[in-house]
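User: My collaborator and I are trying to settle a disagreement about how two of our proteins should look. Neither of us wants to argue from intuition anymore, so we agreed to look at predicted structures for both before our next call. Could you fold the first one, then the second, and keep them clearly separated?

Assistant: That sounds like a sensible way to settle it. I'll keep them separate. The first protein:
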Amino acid sequence: MPVNIRPVVSAGLAGCCTIFSVIAIVILLALGSFFSRHVEVLTGSNHDPKDPNAVAATCYAAALIYGAFVVFCGLQMAVHMRYPRGVQL
């Protein structure tokens, strides 16, 4: 029995979300890595976080959430590729 899957978001929005999510994952993983290593530029001031390891864990969790967006939007792009342009869904 074929599954009738319809896209939730437009193809342009899915592509934009995928690109921005990949960029966000790279940035958050870099920040998480820097905070977990206690880089002095990020942790040496009086106004910086008291627990850099907690900040690093939060950055890694946010990167996982953006990873879920990459999967969802990538699947949305795949659904859009299944249907030719101009077909009423």
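The second protein, kept apart from the first:
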Amino acid sequence: MLQVQDWFLVGLGGVFVIFGLALRLTSRGKTELANAASTHRFGGAIQWVYPLCTGLCLLFGQLPRLLGAPYAAVGFFDAVGLLLAIALAVLMIRHLRLRVR
């Protein structure tokens, strides 16, 4: 049963990655990037990064172990996932701090 839940998390991570890339590549996303660049706003320029990082964290946390990767590879991807989570937290704090001003 737990392996089914792990595959569900991998699927959810894939959905988040696709959603983040879709936000970046659509015409609305490109317009928001241009508007944010012209007004020097930080948060509007990277709104597509939040779902992308979340999806990559989910993928890196589950997929190598489920595919039977060696212990070193699983440890490496766990470390990369942790770094992505920390970077996401820093970006969210910075975005909220700039939004409050």
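Some points you might bring to the call about the second protein. The chain has a mean pLDDT of 81. The CA atoms of residues 17 and 27 lie 18 Å apart.
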